Amino acid sequence: MKNRILLVDDHKILRDGLRALLDTQMSNTIIGEAEDGSQAIKLAGELSPDMIIMDISLPDMTGIEATREILKVSPSVKIVALSMYADKRFVTDMLRAGASGYLLKDCAFEELEEAIETVSKNGRYISPNLTGVVVDDYIDILQKAKSVAPSPLSAQEIQVVTRLAEGQNMKQIATELNISVKTVETYRARISEKLNIHSLADLIKYAIREGLTTLDN
User: Which domain holds residue 185?
Assistant: First the structure.
């Protein structure tokens, strides 16, 4: 089964070169060319390609924006970015937009062939030179997810933890929060149960780790 490919690049000489190279491969058929994002979106709808080789830098919009628009209408099309940009922002934004592959324009033709074959089989292909960028982005995502993970404590329990960690006693906390000492004690018991923390020292460590207080307080 042949890959029906749409080429998207604002440089005709590059499109001509890609067409000449890819047309020699029995598994590929170039069904169209686009020189900007708007034309790419239009042709993607009209020609229903299996795959799009997409530049990032286009005259009217980025390849990232064009990719998003195309995949909204044709979610099954495979999009492979072929770009001069190795910057983390471009690579990760393109992959998040839904691209199945990302290569640099200075890659060997054999690498492009490998990417097309991999993506056509529902795989993903990232240029070996860019894997570090993708791993770094994945780590950033994990760290951000950890930092915004929902607290197991309620808003008032967090207030109690913060004040306990800052050295206030039950009575002081009750006065400041305008609740009874018994209520503060109830919150303290719930906090211990939820966090499995039973000493003040460990509670202070938790509060510092979660950014509820600092060593300066």
Answer: 155-209
Q: Could you give the 3-state DSSP secondary structure of residue 31?
A: strand
Q: Find the distance separating the first CA and the last CA of the chain, reported in whole Å.
A: 68
- Give the single-character DSSP code of 77: -
27 lies in the same domain as 99: yes
Q: Which of 34, 136, 28 is nearest to 88 (CA)?
A: 136
Same domain, 20 and 54: yes
Summarize pLDDT for 118-142 with one digit per residue, the tens: 999 988 888 877 766 555 555 455 4
Domain match, 77 and 124 both:
yes
List the one residue out of 131, 134, 135, 80 whose CA is nearest residue 102.
80
Which tens digit of pLDDT belongs to each residue from 60-107? 999 999 999 999 999 999 999 999 888 878 888 888 899 999 999 988
Q: Are residues 118 and 61 in the same domain?
A: yes
* φ, ψ for residue 116, nearest 5 deg: -60, -45
Q: What predicted TM-score, i.e. pTM, was given to this entire model? A: 0.62
C-alpha triplet 74, 78, 80: angle, nearest 5°: 130
Count how many domains the chain has: 2
